[in-house]
Amino acid sequence: MATSGLAGSTTRRLIERNEPLPEGFAIDAEGRPVTDPRKVKEGALLPFGGHKGYGLALMVEILSGVLTGAGISDEVKSMYRDFEGGGNNGHFIVALDIRRLMPLDRWYDRLEHMLEMLRASGPESPGVRYPGEGRWDAYAEGVQLGVALEESTVEALAKLAAEYNVRVPWEPAPGP
After folding, report:
1. At a CB cut-off of 8 Å and minimum separation 6, what does 128 contact?
2. pLDDT tens figures, 9-57
3. Which of 16, 28, 146, 152 suits a disulfide with 43, CB 3.0-4.6 Å?
4. What would the DSSP string read from start to end of 6-20?
5. DSSP 8-state symbol, 63
6. 63-91: pLDDT as tens digits
7. HSE (side-chain half, CA atoms, 13 Å) at 13
8. Largest CA distance in the chain
9. Is the pLDDT of residue 145 over 90?
10. Nearest Cα to 22, choosing from 31, 30, 33?
11. What residue spans of the chain are helical by DSSP H?
């Protein structure tokens, strides 16, 4: 999960579409607000949630970078620009045995109760959703209907396939 107000992938998508960043999500190298997504790589994306989000982002950095001995801040390589060697990124994973805290049936009942409260706390449509729910819905739709690709992605894949003389799966196979 990105601890910034919006993910770096969103910034790249805005660049591809030639669209501006929403105000308040990024600063340039001098700390001035920017809406040009191309200026983010010289500056920074801001954390979500203001100073509270900054505190949560700092905690994530401490646990996944400092504690693990991995890179912190700009010591982590970009998975989009740096292809030599490892990324120097760390992961902090916590495993809890819920049964040591309460019976599993009680856990599931309490979790479902909380999710029902979330769903009931807002308008019926589109409704309040829990984190990841939209991704699971998109996954189910992709399994049923196939993966939707933007036209620019289809074009890039077709160009790459032609370069390597590979048939793209959405084109019919040549006849006998």
Report:
1. 118, 119, 120, 121, 122
2. 899 889 989 999 999 999 988 999 999 999 988 888 999 988 899 999 9
3. 28
4. S-HHHHHHHHHHT-P
5. I
6. 999 999 999 988 988 877 778 888 999 99
7. 8
8. 65
9. yes
10. 33
11. 8-17, 50-61, 104-120, 133-145, 151-163
State whether residue 73 is helix, strand or coil.
helix
Domain definitions of the chain by residue range: 134-171
The pLDDT assigned to 15 comes to 92
Q: Which two tokens stand for residue 134?
A: 């939209």
Q: Is 89 exposed, middle or buried (0-12, 13-18, 19+ CB in 10 A)?
A: middle
**Closest Cα to residue 128, out of 142, 111, 143, 114?**
114
Q: What number of residues does the chain have?
A: 176
Task: Specify the residue for token string 């969103």.
Answer: 10
Compute CA 91 distance to the chain's CA centroid, rounded to the nearest angstrom.
15
pLDDT of residue 147: 86
Q: Is 19 left (phi over 0), alpha (psi -120 to 50) or beta?
A: beta
Name residue, tokens 């994973």.
93
CB 68 within 8 A of CB 90: yes
Mean pLDDT, rounded, for 94-122: 94
